Amino acid sequence: MRRILSISSLLNQGFIQRRCSSAYFMINAIRPYSVDLSSPNPPGPLSHYRNLVEQGKLQHDPYQEKVAVALENLLGRLEQYEKDMEEYHIKLAEWEKNRENERRRLLMEEAELKQQGDLWTSVKDRRSRLLERWAFRRKSQDIEPGVGKWVSYLNREKKLDSLVGRRPTAPPAPKGLYVYGNVGSGKTMLMDMFYTATNGIVKHRRRFHFHEAMLRINEDMHKLWKNQVEEKSLQSSISSWIMNLPFEMKAKEWLAAEERYKQEIQMKNILPAVADKFLVDREAGERGASILCFDEIQTVDVFAIVALSGILSRLLSTGTVLVATSNRAPEDLNQDGMQREIFQKFVKKLEEHCEIILIGSEIDYRRLIAQRSIDKVHYFWPLDGTALEEFEKLWRQVINQAGGKVTSNTVPVMFGRRLEVPESCNGVARFTFEYLCGQPVGAADYIAVAKNYHTVFISDIPAMSMRIRDKARRFITLIDELYNHHCRLFCSAASSIDDLFQGTEEGTLFDLESFQFETEAEGTKLRRDVLAEGNVSSGGAPAGIKSMLSGQEEMFAFRRAVSRLIEMQTPLYLEGVRSLHPYFQRDHRNFGNSSATTVQHQAFQ
Hints:
By secondary structure, the protein is an alpha/beta fold. Among the domains are: 45-87 and 170-359, P-loop containing nucleotide triphosphate hydrolases (Rossmann fold); 365-504 and 550-587, no CATH class. Helices cover 51% and strands 11% of the residues. It contains 23 helices and twelve strands. The chain has a seven-stranded mixed sheet with strand order 1-7-12-11-10-9-8. Strand 8 and strand 9 form a beta hairpin. Helix 3 crosses helix 6 (187-197), helix 10 crosses helix 11 (302-317) and helix 16 runs parallel beside helix 17. The chain is globular and about 90 Å long. It starts with a strand and ends with a helix. Residues 64-116 form a coiled coil. InterPro entries: ATPase_AFG1-like, P-loop_NTPase.
């Protein structure tokens, strides 16, 4: 059956200017766009939720209210925790300063002894023992290089503990939340209500979706490794504090070698080093509590298990409060048994630091709102003359409002790459399905598109089948990122949204691989080192990182993509584009700097 979704109100009102209609207010899965995100005192998640219910914008759901109550209670404990963590970080900074001063003093004492010959030649009664040790080392072929330095390092650290005391103990963190449930049940909405309410209460706060978090971890690891390589290439240089000491060059070289060894020890386990910088807000300084809101936790491959376990375990151990969403309970995340020992430790850490709550509603509220909406726009099917004509007509309308001149462009992608955008105009871009999903690109590219373009047109979307399962996987990742960045999406497709993942005459989409993130780092030394050198004890050969999600997990991916595509057609979602998309947030910071800004704001009136 031929069908075109209505675009009349879109064309009449620029892009969108919706009337207050009870037909589209009954929704629980959509993020809280009616809140002023720039408000210095946003409402708490429970009061916000109840206000929206009273206004008729949300349908009351007891499961959602239970989560809102838990989030409100957590919010109430954060203000005192922020103060406690500020005091803790003051003590920690003082301890680190004293420890570093004492460490340098110990090093200088050792260097002075070396310079005097006390440690190199020793006394006569020790010469025989030194010769015996030298002979033993000559005989032994199994002694690991650097053992002497390691013992020296440990002894020095032990002496520092007695001189300065052990690291100050952080105040106990309030338990976070791990919220899981079906697609469209409101998990992300409630988490975002909480995240908005923490503004002004907690300095260090971040919200990540799975794909972006994994890419961020990859990028930070790459930077740390790169810095380590650069530091090794500069080993001939000696720190200024060492050069200024009144020692001979031989003693200074020994000091420099000890300094480098300390840095190498700290780099042995790279994931804690990445975690320590993961949430730091440089402008706010390093003091205070930290909140991580993590949307769609999943374990799609070995790297995800190793990285998430290392990063999140470190953050939780050092006082970060985690609020996370997922389709699965923690113990069900890894149904394929990858890296079981590491995963079980991770689950234990989650259960220790988070309250686990199920949103048990079977209702997909995104679908509910779509059914009750008067106007549905932006999705055109099938790929015939009438639908394509309307799709092209809308493209021309949007481009005229955006400035009228279509050009090709490139946008920066993580890891120093760039992606070519064939057609773009002031925040609007157009692609074919084949261009975005038919070549080896992934979440990093899709994040770049989503951040730079508030409006995206995608043409010629086919019905998904086993023959194009890799393209289908990329398409799901693409939808995730466009949704997470709150882009407006226009599609021309071969079938309706509901039928898009139902398969074709070639067969169903039963064993579609998971929608795992993809980067050029996959299969390279970067990933292999994480698995081969990251204390991975069993399973998951580094040579072939593959997604092994079950058929049920695949269905979560299909259902979420369909649910989000449906929500992205709704008036409430579209009304939030102007306030939530990064393009307009940048414009608000630089308002009035360009005529394009004015045109874009007029288009959303």
